[in-house]
Every structure is written in structure tokens, then in C-alpha cells.
């Protein structure tokens, strides 16, 4: 397996040259009747052009029989595709090469240099004065670009040059493709596994910290097959977690802890899900960038109900906050002078919940986008996952507290601020309800207050929407709107006098129809600069949603209103009224009386039956026969 890598210092980056980064599963499996495309991982840290080709000489290949019928290799894009093929195992021995995008010079510790050009004239070396090909040529034409320099040399010797591209590296990529029997359906998700979120997309670029475990979350489903494994290739000290299945979905977590030797390196991972019948999912590969300076510069702060990621701007040099989004694109990333800030609730902005044996993990990620309206990308995306993990025992102790902790956020233009969402005993809003969980009778008045606290004095609070759900999930398919787009939707809703930073309202308690025992209330809130007539707060009740109203702010635009934030409170439980309790007790007493009377009647009937049976036996004088007679 021949490998060539030029390690000279590049004139464009002033750093050592890097070869392309790649890896692959040793064996890729595909049904014979399913046309399939494999995007080979061809990532170059220097941004060079990477191409793939079949090995052609000794050292590049063993059999050198690569060009199979029904297989096609797109050499420019490193894409291998197959149409219907005969069952069997096909060996591929490829070479991956990188080429400079612009002419450059590589220098070495001994003082020598070499030239790598996008178009280099291969027959100049046949000239008598071939010394022009060394570093002396640069002194002869000090102001010439490298390509222009060789053009001068060619003209001087009357040579018609032949352009040939210079390669920087040549590395092998060898694997097999196993073509299996046909399947009833080629659609992923039926017999062949379908990869699901949070599985990263093909070519995604993720980040990791030295000494901090990196987790790769894989998920897949197949309605007509059982997924039994995930095939993964990656760094040597990668470990696999336990595979677990819920319904059709199967998940597994891959862990890897980068060491100091991995600092500034780019680690490739490739993976695919496999069924019990040996069918593979789509084949994907990603890159994980290890940055030791990432420690301490980018921080995740976990509170009881929110998590906030602070990303140092230098880490994403050249990236604007307008180019970043969370799992839910409607939730925006803000910034200050030094950091990008992503603050989300555990039940908002697309935050995902994963349950392990001992913990509950809340996960989200910041992803770069070419354009906020795009649904696809043709450039490598940068994804920075962040999460907060809580012990199940710790979460259990607070899961039924109706009085949750303060919701803390940070945002450019508004600094650090907090929302407080509380239940009160009456319309004076003095005494906070502390019962856990809060129990009410149907039609009892429920009093709620939302308060914002900020270092800014000229702000006003706006409650854009509130909805009730039977579970602690604001996106529950069963819900009831209390406030929508700033408009009242509940006929019992009462708005009480508050302040610019306090919103107070009440409504009659209710229960969801069906086998639901609890009620949770979630509200979308925001802040605005007080006195500005063009803010969402000033418009009040509208027919347009907050998401439709808001858009990305430019970096120079002054913020007059904050982002939307989701806060929640609960649970509430409906208890029986005294009359219902008395009625139930009466029914129980009546039932007891009926049971007692029924018992007396049954005893009487049994007694009478026995009496007549004995009387009849005496008349007929039946006698039991002995065993011998029988």
C-alpha cells in the first residue's frame, strides 16, 4: 500500500502540508437490486482539491482489477455508485490524491523548496539548463508568479509546455462492496435501515475537546427488519455503548476521548446500521475537529430548566450569528463582543431528551447554514453539540415541584435576564403556592404571574402565547390554547393589573378529557425596549405569530426586542369536590348494603335447596354401593 505525503511548509498557510483525511468501513453491503451511491470521505484540512482514482501500478494495488461492470467511480467527487449487480464480493483498491487550488511553494528544514502548481510544465525538465527548475529561478524572476515564471522559462528555450497537475499527497483507500440477494423494497426505513436524527449528516464537521469525552449519537429504524448493530470505524480508542430499541427505533452512542496527541487533528468516523438479515443503511462519514484551546473558551452552563452555550468568536472566525441556528431554526443565536450565545429551555428550541440507565440528557446543537431559508447545503457544515445531563435520582426529587427555578437567559442588547413563573393563592398576588403538586377543584380560579428581571430599566414584558398540555412537553399533540399571538383564547381568562415587568392573569381550573391526571402550562415570552411603537410588545394581540414576525437582525442593527423564550410551570392536578366525595361515599354505602342483602338471599336459597335435596334422598332410599360391587 503505497503512500506519498509532502510534509513541506506551505507558502499559503505557512504550516506543514496535510494529506486528505479519510476512512471507510472495510466492507459495505448492498442488495443486488438496489442502485446505491457511496460518498467516500475525502476531506482535506488545507482545502485542497481531492480526487479519487483506481490504483494502476504495483504498490497501489494488488489485483489492480477495479473497474467492475455496473460500478462507476466519479473521480472528481469521489463518489462510487452501483446499479443492479450480480451477487458477490467486489474488491476496490483506490488512490486518493490532493491537488493545490493555487500555485504554491513548499519549503523544508534543509533550506530547499519545491513547487506545486495547478498547471506545471512537465517537459521543462528536458531542457539543457534544467537548473532553472530549482530555487535559483525565483531570484532570476523575483516579481513573477510561479506559473508565469515557468512560462518565461519555456519561452526562453522555445519549448511548447504540456500542462500537468501536481499532486501533494497520494494515499490508498481499500475496501470491499458485498452485493447480496434482492430485497422486496429498496426504500430506506422498510427492510434497509433509515438513519434518523440525531445521527449526523454525511460530511458533517463536529468539534471535540482534548480530555473531554466526545459522543456520537446514532439512530435508525426499519419497519420490516430488526436492527441489531451499528458498524463504526474511527480512532483507535473509540468505544461502543449499549444498543437499545424503542418501538422501531434503535440507538447507540459511540464515545471517544481525544488526547493531547489528537490536538488540532481531524478524526474521521464512518458508520452504518445493520439488520439481523445483514442489510445496511445509508453509509455516512463525518469529521471531528479536536481543538485543545476549545476548553474554557466555549462553555455550557446548565441550570435547572435551561442550558446556555457560550462560543468564543475566534473559534468560528468569519462566522456571523446570522449563519448559526439551533435544532429549531426559529430559535436564534445571539452574541456579545466576545462570544456567540445559544440559550435554550429543556423543552424548547428542538432540544432532544435522551434517557440512559442512570441519567436524563438534554441535547441541542448550533449548526452553520449558508442561508437561513435553505433546506440543503453543498458545503461542510459546522455543528457544535451541547448537552446537560442530570441523574435520574436528582431529577426525581424536583420533578413534581410546581414552583420551578428561575429561567435564566443571556442575549446581546439585553444582557443577562431572568423570567420567574409562579402560581399564587389569590388575586392579590402576595402568597406563592408551594403545594407539590398543586391540587385544585374544577372551576377553581388559578392565579399566575410572570416576571422578568433585568439590569435594563426601560423594558417591558410581553406574553405572546400560553398553552396547556397533559404532559411536561409544550409540543404535546394534545394541547389547549390559553393565549395565542397575544390574544385571549380562554373564555374564563382574566387579566389583572401588573407592571411593565410583571404580567398577571387568572383562569378557571380545568382537566383534559381522557386518562390524563395532570396539566402543565407553557408560555412564550419576550422583552422589548419600552416606548418603541414598532415592537411586537406594542402591537399586542395580532393575527400573525411571533415566528412570522421575527427575523434575523444584522450585526449593526440595534435590538429593540428580545428573542422568544419558552418557560413552563406545573403540574396541576384536579381533586374531587366534597359533594363528589360524599356522593361517592354514599354510593359505596349503597353498594355495601346491596352486597349484604344479596348475601342473605343467597344463603337462604342454598339452605332451601339442601333441605329439599335431603328430603328427596330419604324418599328414594338411595344407598352407596361398595367398591367390589361396582
Automatic annotation (TrEMBL):
Residues that span the membrane, as ranges: 592-614
InterPro entries: ZP-C, ZP-C_dom, ZP-N, ZP_chr, ZP_dom
KW Oxidoreductase (keyword) present: no
Key word Ligase present: no
Residues covered by the ZP domain: 301-544
Keyword tags: Disulfide bond, Glycoprotein, Membrane, Signal, Transmembrane, Transmembrane helix
PANTHER family reported in the protein's UniProt record: CUB AND ZONA PELLUCIDA-LIKE DOMAIN-CONTAINING PROTEIN 1-RELATED, ENDOGLIN/TGF-BETA RECEPTOR TYPE III
Name of the featured protein: ZP domain-containing protein
Organism the protein comes from: Leptobrachium leishanense
Lineage per the UniProt record: Eukaryota, Metazoa, Chordata, Craniata, Vertebrata
